[in-house]
Specification:
The protein starts with 13 loop residues before the first strand and ends with a helix. The relative contact order is 0.15. It is built from nine helices and nine strands. Strand 1 and strand 2 form a beta hairpin. The longest helix has 29 residues. By secondary structure, it is of the alpha+beta class.
């Protein structure tokens, strides 16, 4: 699919870390997880296991010929065939955190067990851990992820405070290019509600199926805004633009937009992540909003010459666009303000 606009496609920056005079792409494992200290986790949690213990029973039923329903005759506690030591070993091996060592996971599991024995009556947990091992495993998974996120966020913030966090054009030849062509598998083409073809997309053909209703509406507003030179629907995949924040999985924004007109292109590139009403205030949205704040702060301070001649005069901004706006404001008004007033 050929590019629809004659403008030269720019490069897109990512976070990088300065080590001496060199710049390295921000790596979740090298720069962030490497700072995780499992001994410093907050083990002052309270996971009530009373009900789970009560539910850990074998139930026995009787059925007679001609009866349509089972009759429960009695129930008893499950016979334990695993010791606590065996369960602790199973928990350590069953946790899905490949970026933590076996030693680190073992420390976490034993510290959790010590805490459970203190929180619950000792007779409820000790020598009976096998009764609730699956429940405990699920709790530990959530606990580890929360604690790792807290520590990687701190490591990320420390890099920023020490002025080691910068932008980086991370791809072949030290830059990321919006692709010259894309492969479309869907048959339905994105058009305006009045049937008009889209005009400002970088590609002649944009598939309608790749958008939810809110993303589709955002794309159509971008296409008719006077302050937009071109817009690009960012696709999901290793070959497309992403942002490495302080959590493991990378952020893949929905749209990339350049301001201006064909006669007067402006050096403003805006990355937009659209969030529908049902995602307002959830953990993923809050995380992306936090990374967007860092993105803007770093972008304001970066020396663009460090990004190469192509980016010398550019301003780059990462914006979360919420469908649900405060005080009755419409998201379309918010988007138009962003496009018109972005620094």
């Amino acid at each position: 699919m050929r590019v629809n606009t004659p403008t030269r496609i720019g490069t897109l920056p990512r976070f990088c870390v300065k080590n001496g005079s060199e710049y390295q792409a921000l790596d979740y494992f090298r720069h962030l997880v490497a700072k995780v200290d499992v001994e410093a986790f907050d083990y002052k949690f309270d996971w009530p296991l009373n009900q789970a213990m009560k539910d850990a029973k074998d139930r026995f039923y009787r059925v007679s010929l001609g009866d349509s329903e089972l009759e429960r005759t009695y129930e008893t506690e499950v016979d334990l065939i695993e010791t606590d030591r065996q369960v602790l070993g199973w928990l350590t091996a069953a946790l899905p955190f490949d970026y933590l060592s076996f030693k680190q996971l073992r420390v976490i599991v034993h510290r959790v067990f010590e805490r459970l024995c203190k929180c619950e009556l000792s007779c409820m947990v000790r020598e009976r851990l096998g009764l609730v091992k699956f429940v405990v495993r699920d709790h530990i998974e959530r606990f580890i992820q929360d604690q790792v996120n807290l520590q990687t966020h701190k490591a990320f913030d420390d890099l920023y405070k020490k002025r080691r966090l910068h932008f980086y054009l991370h791809c072949k030849q030290c830059r990321f290019h919006i692709p010259d062509c894309i492969t479309i598998n869907a048959a339905k083409r994105l058009t305006h509600d009045d049937g008009d073809q889209i005009e400002k997309s970088l590609f002649d053909y944009v598939e309608d199926e790749s958008h939810n209703e809110y993303e589709r509406a955002v794309a159509l507003v971008l296409d008719r805004d006077a302050n937009v030179l071109w817009w690009y629907r960012n696709l999901v995949g290793q070959d497309h633009f992403d942002i490495q924040g302080y959590q493991r999985y990378k952020i893949r924004p929905d749209f990339v937009v350049q301001s201006g007109t064909r006669q007067r292109p402006e050096h403003r590139v805006i990355v937009i992540e659209s969030k529908g009403k049902h995602l307002q205030g959830n953990l993923d949205t809050n995380y992306k909003r936090t990374v967007a704040d860092y993105f803007e702060k770093v972008g304001r301070k970066v020396t663009w010459q460090q990004l190469g001649q192509d980016f010398q005069p550019h301003v780059f901004r990462f914006q979360i666009l919420d469908e649900a706006q405060e005080h009755g404001r419409d998201w379309q008004d918010e988007l138009r303000d962003i496009l018109a007033n972005s620094p």
